[in-house]
Amino acid sequence: MTLAVAGLAKSFGGVQAVGGVSFAVAEGEMLALIGPNGAGKSTCFNMIGGQLRPDAGRVTLAGADVTGARPGRLARLGVGRTFQVTETFASMTVRENVQTALLAHQRRIWRFARPLAAQQEEAALRLLDQVGLAAQSARAAGVLAYGDVKRLELAMALAAAPRLLLMDEPTAGMAAAERAALMALVRRLATAQRLAVLFTEHDMEAVFGVADRIIVLNRGRLIAEGDPEAIRADPLVREVYLGGGFA
After folding, report:
1. What's the N-to-C CA distance of the chain in angstroms?
2. Which of the listed residues 61, 64, 204, 246 has the most CB atoms within 10 Å of its CB?
3. Where do the domains of the chain lie, and which CATH numbers do they carry?
4. Which pLDDT tens digit goes with each residue over 216-243?
5. What's the CA gap between 52 and 8, in Å, rounded?
6. Partners of 222 in the beta sheet?
């Protein structure tokens, strides 16, 4: 397994946000983590991504224990991440954003003193081509349409050549057509590159459209796990989260 989580737990001020959650993600697989507000999704996600240290449990990446590892170390070990609020440099060009991500991954920060145009240009353009942004490489990131900013952030995450991609609400704020296109792109990349993808998402059309498996949290506990059809039919999941919208 690319990612394995065992008994992950976290409390804040005596309130347990996540209690004993376990699951795994294989290479080439897209696993969706869903649940109602306050279910513990963000806490679980942030423990895996290194933003929070778990109180208990274990996180392994390709068999190596990375429990509590900081985001920088995780990135060097092959973990890429996108965020609900995009993190790009608006004043830089699209290409320069990806070049910066490439240099940061290679720990060549000192080279930022040199003009970016001379560094990692071909690699940046290859990544932009993968996400459909090569034609916009010279544009300032700040003038991109929102859907294209999300694609740029994905290209920057791919600059780390990840084996695991963590995506926090990847379609937040996007129109329906943009959501479908972005998630279809991620699906293609996961299949072609054998990339394990763990994502949180509120848009159920996006979840059921691309996920191989779905895990459902409620009040910090894992209440269901299975393929989309099994989750759609699960009576407990329908009661606490889906309601009647996915009959």
Report:
1. 32
2. 61
3. 1-78+162-247 (3.40.50.300), 90-160 (no CATH)
4. 999 999 999 999 999 999 999 999 887 6
5. 11
6. 217
